[in-house]
Amino acid sequence: MYNKTIAELSAGLEAGEFSSVELTQVYLDRINSLDEQLNSFITVTPERALEQAKNADIQRAAGNAGILNGIPLAQKDIFCTKDVKTSCGSKMLDPFISPYNATTINKFNDSGAVMLGKTNMDEFAMGSSNETSWYGPVKNPWKQDAVPGGSSGGSAAAVAARLAPAATGTDTGGSIRQPASFCGITGLKPTYGRVSRYGMIAFASSLDQAGPMTRTAEDAALMLNVMAGMDPRDSTSVDEAVPDYTANLNDSIEGLKIGLPKEYFSEGLDDSVAKVIESAVKEYEKMGAVIKEISLPTSNLAVPTYYIIAPSECSSNLSRMDGVRFGHRCKDPKDLNDLYIRSRGEGFGPEVKRRILVGTYALSEGFYDAYYVKAQKTRRLIANDFNQAFDDVDVIMGPAAPSTAFNIGELTDDPITMYLSDIYTIAVNLAGLPGMSIPAGFANDMPVGLQLIGKHFAESKLLNVAHQFQKETDWHLKAPASFK
Ligand code: GLN
User: Fold this and answer.
1) Most CB within 10 Å of its CB: which of 203, 361, 424, 464?
2) Which of 151, 181, 203, 424 for mutating ligand 1's site (highest number of atoms within 8 Å of CB)?
């Protein structure tokens, strides 16, 4: 049962082959017996899940079940959940119980989906390896010495290990696509503004976007159908009609124009990863797509631009975690200053502190124009590159990450190399575009993700292009040996 996709499980529920209570129990049992090896969940909510499953079964019996009714899902611990702890991977928020649900959580609740628990993540979503979590690192189900990627590493590992049929993730610079690539699953970062950020703890507000992490493109479409849409509570969500994302999955891609940015295939890319990506592109050629080399000349500016903008925004967003309004409060403060300094000093981990320092510096008087304003200008150039490229091509393809999953501890003392693991994903966030990573093969026995980048609001096209690949290949069906 746990090898089935959402689409298959939904059909099984509808045909009465099993109930949601039975299905939910299967996943709860798997989490119970296997997650010790992975640490992919921060919180598991068995009673609540079974209660939701029972209600879903009642709804179905009454004849009003949508596709996600009764389907168990895992939620990244960045989404506020009423009555269930929301930690964002940080000691700062460890005991925090939100008084309200994130819009995404409400939407899944309304769809009848079941929440299994909350997944582990890098602290405040800052990281590429899940090692910055206060709850300890998550292990990659394909090789437990390796990282699952980050920051949505708990979600990626849980889906790859079949501890949940699907999960949510968030992506500020690559946090859905890079862990999807490292764990061999399908991840979609929608267009900025497509999915509400209300109740999603903010890291860098102009970049953050939530999306589905699934095994197939079809499942990602089913999840996005629920997640997408304008939310009056999020002024950056866009009032753009939500199509049925499954409607175009089977469109032919004959004549599809695919652009390969030459900058994504140069120095820094592992040869073994390049080979996998090249053979995936050949597969598309066989399906009738036309391949064109393109150039995104500002590609090399993406990482430095991001590491000014994201820390600047996070230094502002995290100022509310001061031991008064939100977050950990130190014991016996002498005065207000002492309370702030020790509460924040004790609550935040080293990577978060590093970002707050960089961001505060970049925003400070005298440096603001040199760093922050300059970064906003290069951000515009990066977006222009993509706009120009999309005059000639329908979809851009390349690797999701320069390597396969590295080992736990390998890059912890080398933040720059760690930052570079998002070199192919970050520009997409800066430009606000949708991007996907889909399983494309293996290099050194570890999964490799192919990245697809589309025009604004072209999620349907990306899902169609991904689904066609998954009809021709079976990489997305492979399961890690110890979790089959
Ligand atoms: N790895 C990047 C960072 O640490 C991206 C994280 C993310 O997308 N949330 O900022």
Assistant:
1) 424
2) 151
Is residue 423 one of the residues assigned to a domain?
yes
Q: Tell which atom from ligand 1 comes closest to the C-alpha of 207.
A: 8
pLDDT given at position 255: 98
Residue 1 Cα to ligand 1 middle (Å)? 33
In this model, does residue 267 exceed pLDDT 90? no
- The pair phi, psi for residue 304, each rounded to 5°, is -60, -40
Contact 447, 402 (CB under 8 A): no
**Which residue is it, tokens 């209660």?**
51
Judged against a pLDDT cut of 90, whether residue 141 lies above it is answered with yes
pLDDT of residue 19: 98
Task: Report yes or no on 336 lying in a domain.
Answer: no
Query: Is the distance from the beta carbon of residue 68 to the nearest atom of ligand 1 less than 6 Å?
Result: no
Residue reference for tokens 């598309």: 284
Q: Domain count for the chain, please give it.
A: 1
Single-letter residue type at 375: A
- Average pLDDT (466-477) is 98
Residues 229-244 pLDDT 10s: 999 999 999 999 999 9
Does residue 360 lie within any of the structural domains?
Answer: no
Is residue 400 scored above 90 in pLDDT? yes
**DSSP string spanning 128-153?**
SSSTT-TT-PPPBTTBTTB---SSSH
Q: Is 175 marked active-site? A: yes
In a domain, residue 267? The reply is no
Residues in the chain: 484
Residue 151 in contact with ligand 1 by CB distance below 6 A: yes
Where in the sequence is the domain holding 103, given as residue range(s)?
6-255+393-483
CA 196/CA 182 separation, integer angstroms: 26
pTM over 0.85: yes
CATH classification of the domain holding 111: 3.90.1300.10
Cα 240 to Cα 238: distance, rounded to the nearest angstrom: 6
